[in-house]
Protein 1
Amino acid sequence: MKERRFVREVVESKQRILILSFVVGAVFFLLLMRLWHLQILRSDDYREMSENNRLRFVPVAASRGAILDRNGKVLVSNRPSFSLAVVPQEVLDKESLLTQLSALLGLERAEMDERWRKSMGRAKYYPIVLASNITRDQVEILEENRLRLPGVEIEMKPVREYSNGTLASHLLGYISEISEKELNAEGYEEYNSGDYVGKNGIERALEMELHGDDGGRQLEVDARGRVLRTISETYPTVGNSVVLTIDSAIQKQAEQAFGEQAGAAVAMNINNGEILAFVSNPGFDPSLFSGKLPADIWKGYLEDKRRPLENKALSGQYPPGSTFKVITALAGLNDNRIDDSTSVNCDGAYTLGTSTFKCWNKKGHGTTSLRKSLRESCDVYYYQLGEKLGVDKIAATAKAFKLGAPMGVELQNEKSGLIPTSEWKQKRFGKRWFHGETLPVAIGQGYVLTTPIQLASMIATVANEGTIYRPHLVKRIVDADGKPLRETKPEVIGTTSFSKESYRLVKQGLYAVVNESGGTGAQARLYDVKVAGKTGTSQVVKMRDSKQGTPYQFRDHALFVAFAPFDKPEIAVAVVIEHGEHGGSAAAPIAGRILRAYFDGKKPPRKEPSAAPKATEEPEVDEKAATLEESQDSGDKSND
């Protein structure tokens, strides 16, 4: 029985092994047949399908951070725009494709060729931007013809929106497509052709903060461009936002005050260096530079004699004219060449050797003290003081106020101005300094050059009696959620060693300029705030034809510097009107309007005064000097 059972089990085992072997053999046979079918019968079909499944990288541009004023008003934001891009590996005939695009969209063939050339060497699945900021009509045409245009894509990118038009255009700057030079420059390694970058102003100075990090998706698509699957994906990071120190309400009033006149103005917080208004007039439309700038507009900018593309507040260099008398007066007080009782007789001119130096008032100012010399801007007073001091002592005082060197604000291309010395002339021209050259320097002419931002810093330093703050435009940097990342703290870049008495005497003279009869800056006067300031008129050419009308480009520049309130200064202003001729009539009213905007902004909302408030307490004055000069007053009219 046992033997039979054993035999039966062996037979059954052999049967199971035979069945299993048959099943395994059948499976392997089927696999071989499938492989034969795929690799032999359908090899050509599957090879074509494989080649038609391609990788494609779809970039997702990051939104740039916003730019806001000190009160949180948005000055620059973003809007969507469309770009025409092409994936090189999907293009069978480049020349034919570009010809079709040019005909369909009206694009320049040469420009598309150049963009393609610049992008050579990159991965063939990475899109090349052939045209930026295309119109919605062009987008519709591309969509209608998509099947005839293999490899063509429409990309959406955020571009800048300057909702306030030309407001603060030189400060804000503009963005445009990255250049080939920038692509190869250090710091731009993560940028690609077709990306937008800041070209000037804050947009350029804080590019790395504003730009953000681009994202993208790597896709597998078929021959028709249909997405098969997403291989990888990274999300874009919005750029940080910038909060500026300027007040857009003051900025707007300042720009409107200029009208069509060319020039610049800077308003600054005296106690921390924050710039409250930064004007260069005329401005330009920064939104035009995001796309292709129309040829007629570009030509108009270039041919405009007022130079609308120049940032005059930062790089405009002007003789400071009589505003520089503040420096000369402090130099004289510091060197004990003058005091509050020193006076000279002005008969309309001063002779040194064989040269005669005229005062702006041909009739003369008569007996003139320091206070009157500032109030009525007597040139003869400063001719004589300059002769006593010499150019190097005047220059030392000017440089103590950081004149003649960049102030170090956040923007690029700041000019340094020029404060001449005897050593400078020897190096520059190989000639010694002559005494007669000092006299024009004493009244802010000759070789002296300053920028509007330097003049604002100068008068701010006089107002706070010796502390020089670095002017700055950025209040803080915040992330996309508004969380502060970096705060700009006031930076003291120097202090002066002049006595409080010297500052007191000069400031009294500046008060008289605006508030006393005969003062040249009466048009900057405010009814409720005591303003102190100094007018200036600087020559553009040495001699003018008084019989014929002076051409615009040869007229004198008009300047005015001021601070307020007199008793407890808060704000300093410098205004330059190119070819405005008279500081008192052209520049002073603009400064007054800027100051008015500042103090109106400090008033509680919806509480209008029913009557003019009482005047603030008069500053301490020298009654004896004022009495002595009363008979010499020449009225409010003045060339300065």
Note: The chain has a mean pLDDT of 84.
Protein 2
Amino acid sequence: MRNRANAGSTLIVALASTMLAAGIACAGLSIATTGQADTAREELKLRAKAVADAGVHRAIAFLDQTARLSPFEPFATLDDLLFDGGGAAIDYLLAEDEPLVMGGTTYGTCSVLLTASASGLVRDVTVTATGYVPNRASAKFRRTMQAVVRVEQRPAEVFDYSYFINNWGWFYGNTINGYGNVRSNGQFDAANYAPGAFGTPRYERIDLANPAAPDLVGYQDDNGDGVLDGSDGGIFAGWDIKDAGNVRGLGGEAQNQHDFVAQTAMPNLNDLSVYEARALAAGASLAIGGAGGLPATPVADAVLGDGVGEKQNLVLIGTVDQPILLDGPVVVRGDVIIAGVVSGQGAIYAGGNVYIANDLTYLDPPATSLPATNSEADTEAWIAANRSKDFLGLFAREHVVFGDYTHWIWRYYVDWWTNDAMNASAEDAGEDQIPGTRAGRDGIMDTADDDVLEGDGCFTVSHYTEAHAALGQIPAGKSVGDVIPGSGEDIDGDGAYDGTTTLAEFDLAAALDSGEWAGNLPAGTLHYSEIATLELTDVQAAVYTNHAAAMVTLAWGEDFDLLGALVSRNESMIYGTNHLNLTHDRRLTAGGAYGTLLPSEIVPARILAWRSLEQDLHYLGAAP
């Protein structure tokens, strides 16, 4: 009899684990009865535990979904539910004696209570779930489980790469070099060229508690060799990696080519109000000058364009003697044109396009562009030595434009590649938001893995529902029926359909002679070409756009070097230089030494602790 009871218990636990892993918020169990009271009691005890476990998992799914339903400010809706107006935690009853039903059969009821604590960009939620069998009023058995679940915002993972594209990745050239990891959410294609993908280990996070000794935590053994020796990293792709046999560097080794990995989310910059709040809280600003002890000339406070009659657009041109002075994260509600020399540490968020008109360099750059080796110790030492050096983030709500977009050569090549079928950008890319995947991983149409939404001529998205409203999950400013930003085929998260990128989208929002530009535009400048170049060679910044990064540079005989990161939805980066070198600024590793400046993302809810509040299951009623 003992063997039969053990077999029955094993079956019950296995079924419960399978259902919970699949996200089913109920605990339907097959009960193996032997006719003996002790066996029946054990089985019902296990059912009560499974019901309580299901309640915890339901709470985790609720927290995760609520944060993602408000992508611009993931904590806004959660905080409305879990805290009062003064910031004090309040208990939120997610479920009270709620039946858990599957296949028409009720297996018990569950009550779930949430209690939260807040610290910066972290919410730790204590989930207390009690399962009753058959229900609370006439319970024969109950079990209470408790978990601490963390919901967290952190600097977006996309900045861990020298090149990240939320589309198909193209390294078409023997003289392209990615000094750091490269990643695409779609296919990565080297087309039998011999580009360099030199790779670097990834880490879970960086601990900056001791500013003099940054500590990289959680080395990722990507190649699975069990050795944490700096030989990890390489090429990562959400689809397959194609024709990469000639790739140079770590990324050319089979164990460092990681295909069909989970897609990495792009942060949503369509609503910059959260970044405006951060900029105001930081007292951020931009100025020009200040060299040799002379006073600097302010050009923007924390938010440019929020004042009555204030100009929306900004031109910044720095020199060694009169650099652009960065002090924290600044939001510009319109377009930004920038070139020349920058000093300090800061970021510029643009509500329109960012134009890198000419070379853009640090006055006080890192002493070397890379650590001596890829080892953890050398990387930490390099970050420590260069943490006080200049740093700039350029983050565009729309496009990032490199060089003189008005030149006919620039427009010809960018238009050609932007409209190429291989570089599709229209938001009819299907459920996975990646074009060219309609036939699924097997490459055969009319099979189970087809992405049938791709290319169907419909903009398929999800909408807020009455169910969301009943749970308090609709963020302020949104209503039942509105598009959930970033859902379905809404790749850029603005809730509206976007077709193929056009040349017109790269044009300035206002003419330079319109009087609508703040900053230090040289007197008498009428045309963008007067301050821009078609011979771009140096950009030192972390660059982000959830639309297109577009460039043509024809600096023959020279290299094009970008120190930072290039992150985009799709790209038309066309170079006529000896090399195109994308060097990952290791200060961005694992959230970055400047994490407070970077766009943030919501981290999937994760369990920090899980325990039973009752060491022994309580038998509350008469024996069955």
Note: The two ends are 18 Å apart (CA to CA).
Protein 3
Amino acid sequence: MQFKGLTLDDFQIRAIRQIENNNSVVVSAPTGTGKTLIADYTISKFLNAKRRVIYTAPIKALSNQKYKDFTKDYGKEMVGIMTGDIVINPEAPLLVMTTEIYRNMLLTHDAVISYVSYVIFDEIHYISDPERGTVWEESIIFSPQNIRYLCLSATIPNAAEFAEWISSIKAHPVIVVDYDKRAVPLKHYVYDKSIGLFKTEDLAVSGIQPNPLIRGQNTADHMDVVRQLKDKMPAIFFVFNRKNCEKFARELSKDKDYTTKQQKAEIISYTREHVSKEVSQMNSYARLKSCIVKGVAYHHAGLLPNLKEIVEGLFEKGLIYVLYATETFAVGVNMPAKTVCFNSLEKYDGISFRYLNSKEYFQLAGRAGRRGIDKEGTVIALIDRRRADVARIKQLVTKDIEPIVSEFRLSVNTVLNLVKNHNDDEIDTILKSNFDYFLRMKSEHQVRIMASFNNKLKKLTAMGYITHEKKLTQKGEFACHVYFEELLISEIFYSQMYKKLSETEINCLIAAIVYEEKRMDMFRTKGAKNQYEHILRVIGENKYVDSTINKRSIFRLVAMISSWSNNGNFTDVLTTTNLLEGDIIRLFRRMIDIQRQIIKATSNNELRDKIVGCLKKIDRDIVRAEFEE
């Protein structure tokens, strides 16, 4: 069978046949085997039949990439994108969105959902994510019965169990298409200063116990690994630290120059053509340019979107030989290399350092080996043999053994929407529909979920969001459209509080709500005292807001947010903080998302007009999304 000029593999044909039979399909296959082609077939089929398809992705970077790809394939008029801070062509037959947006549309019974035939869940294993997994489960639970799903994932050991759960709550066949053979086989190596480059399978598990206290001296670094590459470029070098991504790239570019004179000219021409005027004047652009002209680059979430696009474009053109990247590169961008390197097989997960699990390892390692170009992909992990858990490493690289698990948690928003749209019996059925309950099938778990529901119901009733008769109040209706810090945002903006605050002060409050503090973040606070104290006096009128909001964040953010809100330029903003440019942009875009939620939630024209004014102060110039609305 041929599609897009390519001969399809057996597993792709099997999946497509099930789609033709109007079944839902779970495709479990290694990275780089061609799962995307199944999605492309599904989209073409339903667009040709004048039916709507929704494509969901776990992160905005992947949504943005897919929007670009689909507009090239089908034309701008056929494709829309919705990611909270970006809304373009929302009535299009092919809609690209984050999974959160799809779930929110389901809960609010958005009219768009009525015309959807198929939903494609890319990277469905994100259902196991502790912070965001609930969104994926609810996206399936709340979907209308007529909608079918194409769930794409790297290897899922319990795919049959997962499919059985969907089938049990949606009452239609869900077929698993398993495929465990990579198009380009992988060879796994470790590099240690004392033993050199070694096939992982040949590592001896000696009687010496790893010593986690050993640090420093006599250990290898990234340069040692790069010297092993020789004919194994291009390489993606995964580093679980943004600052080290840049540091390592600068170190390598000072030591090596991989590009010819002609390639240098091509790189300079490409960057000049694609860099925006504002970005071209920034130090970050100069720092990146000094690396990329030598065929070395870095890519992480702290980079400006424009610079990330330039790196991706040069990598795609084969002009980058070594790319240092954080793990988001493996999810957001489908760009394989000949070799994948790891600076470490351990990462900090916000609580402690731990080894990667097998799904994380293969998600990244799977970028090694370009289909139709390389006979094999090479994976090299940098280790320190004196402190490494060799047995664990050997197990890690053997096979992806991580099953999908449930991380279902009831949010305030879900409780509000359940009360609004369902009676007691329906709520009971829905609460029993989550994947965790299916896996356990134990009554005490249902008691725990009902207890969680009843506790939130009691709190929401006491705070005036739900009546004792279980009908939503107007404040409850407002909160139904808020999907982050629902109570805090509703208490601020359903009250008269906003009237006593300027647009800039409101932006400072919203920023403090969405800002995620990191230990090394620094902000200039000189001159912030008066504005800060005025904001405190206003929020002090509401006991819940006064006790819940992070006041330290308000104080720290006042100068930065005021600078941008008062029409400052981005260079001025950079003088108020040590946040990376991309992190500042992301903070502003999260603010835009919340502002749009408030605008949609309120029926108060005065509040709506004020928040529109707040949004316009933030959504401008370099912050504006890369797509024209």
Note: The chain has four domains: 2-178, 186-396, 408-463, 481-623.
Protein 4
Amino acid sequence: MTPMNRYEAWLNDALIDEATKEELRALAGDAKEIEDRFYRELEFGTGGLRGVMGAGTNRLNTYTVGKATQGLAEWVLGKSGKPSVVIAYDSRNNSPEFALDAALVLAGNGVTAYLFPSLRPTPQLSFAVRSLGATSGIVITASHNPPEYNGFKAYGSDGCQLVPEDAEQVIGAIQQVTGFDQVRRISREEAEAKGLLRWLGEEEDRQYVDTVVSNSLNGELLKGGLGDSFQVVFTPLHGAGNLPVRQVLKQAGFKHVHVVPEQEQPDGYFSTVKSPNPEEREAFTLAIALAQKTGADIIIGTDPDCDRMGAVVRNNEGEYVVLTGNQSGAIMVDYLLGTLKERGQLPDNGVVIKTIVTSEMGADIARHYGADVVNTLTGFKYIGEKMTQYEQSGERVFLFGYEESYGYLAGTYARDKDAVIASLLICEAAAYYKSQGKTLYDVLQELYARFGTYMEHLESRTLKGLDGVQQIAAIMEDWRSNPPAEVAGVKVDRMLDYLTGLDGLPRENVLKFMLSDGSWFCLRPSGTEPKIKVYFAVRGTTQDEAVAAVKHLTQAVMERVDNKA
């Protein structure tokens, strides 16, 4: 069926509401836009759905959400035990409506839906699935994507996003839903009357906050007086982190947490930023201005669904600098493992889990303390999957998991990255080192002196639509079929093609090139956005040397990438 055929089918479908048809009629004559909206079904990947909101098969709307939920319901009904699904959502436009609609489709299939009545962090959904013993979970979010996006993330009974084997089963069930008349839903009143729609609230919030705070390492230090003077500036970037982060920090002993007022309230348009992404310095503009007024010791920011955390600290010149995800991760690995070792609480079989595109600095630190390091593919679901395996086998004790894209987890209460625990740990580390007369910037320089100056960089190219899909495929094929012998004057030792299945990992379209001087770069199409991402990593003896090396490597690689883009 062509894009135009699908477009006309929607216009003629009696189950499509009139407002949606009006949106589609307005596209008449715009062949390019019709093609983009209808050239494919919005793909349900291993993490679920994510796309621009609007009418069409390649858009996120009540129909594509309903179809995905129907497929998930079929999968859930095939599991043992009483079928139930927990649903949470963030501050994005249409998130409450999509969440309720998913709940009513589940109820229409006889599946109990536990629904939070207002926005909650993604990691709290993971925690709730585990604490309630649910079969599955759904989060309506598009993480840190631009405002026009939303998404549908699906979870298994362990609180982990669906891994490929389970996702393939759900995808198969969704593909069996060929018409919207196959999507079964009932009214809210009927769902509540039958006990198939149940509302969650304060009790679940309290359990989550208490559990996060129980992972504090130096609460005595804060309650002993340091909490009176330590200053934190926090921005939730209009998202779900506002209340839980503040509650956790307060309960842990931080008495001075200044929330950026312009970014405190939910706003699906994220009106004060270009992108609600704590990876970008621009997102911290207002927070830095507030920090300069309050003399803050640290700035933290969380993305809309509060699973990513960024930190900003003062350098030696007193300027606020944004830490990269790799830098924050290395600091937290050192703080966590160092504290446990000092107290004699570091297990002999402890493990730190990271992704293949995450810096090796944290891995070197972990091994220094005697912990094992395990690499996974990109995506926290793979870290969560390993956590569950180790919990069941007892082979290793999970200590910390993280990825370069600002996702961290300590503790085993959840199976997804958690910006709430990350906010607590990074603030606690900053307070701990302040008691020793050091900033986190000082600590980072000490780590460079001990382990080498690691420097990483990320480049991405956005290539939208069908043409973009083809361009990204051409770029990957070019590098896969014609791997370079050297890059930037450095010999390429080997190419790792994860599409062939390496190190027992699932097959994935990722290429990583290992260079003879210990540097590397990696090409990876994004699974959630129309982008190709290219990761770079070097290790130098000085910061200037490392900065120059990563710049030189980036230029050489991106020149070839851009020739194909």
Note: The longest strand covers residues 453-462.
